[in-house]
Design goal:
Shape of chain A: globular
Distance between the termini of chain A: 9 Å
Radius of gyration of chain A: 14 Å
Number of domains of chain A: 1
Strand content of chain A: 25-35%
CATH topology of chain A: Alpha-Beta Plaits
Oligomer: homodimer
Strand order of the largest sheet of chain A: 2-3-1-4
Largest interface: A-B, 41 and 41 residues
Helix content of chain A: 25-40%
CATH architecture of chain A: 2-Layer Sandwich
Chain lengths: 100, 100
């Protein structure tokens, strides 16, 4: 069963290309997380927010990663994190054009 | 450029197979929305929440769909919707194993 972790938080920048440069090394590290299928990086310059949508192949790794990433974001100075873990309904998702 | 819409809301059920049966016709309708690349259906029986993660290929359709879906969810009796639209950082996402 697949699990989706959604995280977002206030973020004053950088955005777009500067965001890529700032976080490409972290992205390479995150790509090797146990249980991670993928992460989508989200950003909204107008609302000054950023976050991530993650797919994990098991709940334990989703929860372990959330704990680890929360501590990391706090160490970067981020606060007011909003995080939720959901089951994915794979049948309905396949109807709406994504295989998980 | 791709846009990610995340929506979640309190949901008392149905979940899993019953959720699929209840919403498969709606899923077929949503699959035909203009600009929609895909939707992931999310549910959390323990926390009594559900939602969706959507990828759109343009911002106008993401905003149009959010307005339409908000009215539909309200007509179903759902309240306290939480919705955010983000840009997707495609370069960082590709490092973390998803092509958008």
């Amino acid at each position: 069963m697949k699990y989706l972790l959604q995280i977002d938080f206030p973020h004053n920048g950088p955005f777009k290309k500067d965001f890529e440069v700032a976080f490409s090394d972290l992205a390479k590290d995150i790509a090797n997380e146990d249980g991670l299928v993928w992460k989508i990086w989200t950003e909204n310059e107008e609302n000054k927010e950023a976050g991530g949508i993650y797919l994990f192949d098991n709940l334990d790794d989703a929860q372990r990663y959330l704990d680890k990433h929360t501590q990391r974001l706090n160490s970067f100075g981020y606060t007011d994190l909003r995080a939720k873990i959901f089951n994915v309904n794979e049948t309905l998702s396949s109807i709406t054009k994504i295989s998980l």
